[in-house]
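I'll show a sample.
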Amino acid sequence: MPPPSSPNRPVRRALLSVSDKTGLIEFGSALARRGVELVSTGGTAKALREAGLEVADVSDITRFPEMMDGRVKTLHPGVHGGLLFVRGNETHQDAANKHNIVPIDLLAVNLYPFEETISKGADYDTSIENIDIGGPAMIRAAAKNHDGVAVLVDASDYDAVIADMDANDNHTSFKLRQRLAAKAYARTAAYDAAISNWFAAELEDDAPAYRAVAGKLAQTLRYGENPHQHAAFYTTGEQRPGVATATQLQGKELSYNNLNDTDAAFECVAEFGIEQPAVAIIKHANPCGVALGGSLLEAYEKALRCDPVSAFGGIIALNGRLDGATAEKIAGIFTEVIIAPDADADARAIIAKKKNLRLLITGGLPDPQAKGFTAKTVAGGLLVQSRDAGRVTQADLRVVTKRAPTEQEMRDLLFAFRVAKHVKSNAIIYAKDMATVGIGAGQMSRIDSSRIAARKSEDAAKEAGLTDALAKGSVVASDAFFPFADGLMSAAEAGATAVIQPGGSIRDDEVIAAADEAGLAMVLTGMRHFRH
């Protein structure tokens, strides 16, 4: 509840100092028409004057010139006293009178574009110069004294302030000032988070003493994973192609689960770059089909064959420009979201006929080996880790069985292991001809995942009218070591001929011996890909 001394407050003097001048002239003009004295700095003052508005320089308040390339201009008692003195407090008013400090009733500041600067890969010195000092100091001062001062950090709030003043005889209401203050503190927190994380990256410090995670509201969601949960989508400013940076061309609003699944799909398909057409079909954040092909259409058909039942209502991610033929095929079954770097005119026209189908265009693929970190909450804290940017190549593999994989088996093994990185643990992936043919995910035991994947390959074969299970003659990938030989033997019984797994179990020798006895080829990666 607001304190008793929180009436509407008049706006007689406003300090405007903005880096992003969107809406500035309109806002300044609206204030001036309402009799508000405008005070400003540098480029903001110049822009206002060029628009024909009368503006006082901040140096008129501080009686001190801007200096040091503008680094020192608002860090002065004349500014901070005007923002901080408590209206109605006799001691504060006496101090203001004694030192000729005039009240500032409204502050509009947006900060130097630090986040934008570093996202463009600016050098160290340029990044440092884009760290704002005076702006955050003024924002925090005004926000603390929101009982008397309205503080704006976002041009989207300009109209709301003018409307509030019109409704209250050129005064601002406490409710508005309180809401603006909360937003102001969140903005400076996000700004400082971006700076501290940039420093941590520059220092290659994976565990800084304090870790700040912040985001900007992109979308209020209807609900979370379930209808009784509240949810919202925040973006961090990282310019990584994906759901946060994509343009949605059509379809209804994305839900919490849509966003989560679409991110999983696009990160998965990005593993295969742009060298060969690739498609990933995701359901509940797990791949239910991934494939490479000579075209996107072929890749989609191969991915769909792996688990056509689960693909119903799924998310489709492509690594290339969606074409008409592939769009026509995808539109043949119920699909929630399609995400791709681009889509041609034919594809857009076909998808447009499905009004509820969302089509997202990203302009590129995320780099699966780029540095970054992920975070999840636990009670009372955060778990933060570097992004799983690990990748194994053929040179990293160690053949541990009497039989080495054939060339085709080796290609399929490397493909399957990349998919395994995106399947919830325990993960088992059968693959053949650069396509998944059976996936087992998220089980408490590895042998259960193996059996589920084998069963899915049988079901998919029946759906396709085939006699043999799709896993017959396939390879198998495991995201972590086989603790016992039973999971391996289950894969052999399903028809797998070669195995890729991290190794590292105390029973590795037992597992290797079982593989030799079954005539399997097996390679160890030395790297695991748990995903919980």
DSSP finds 19 helices and 25 strands in the chain. The mean pLDDT is 92.
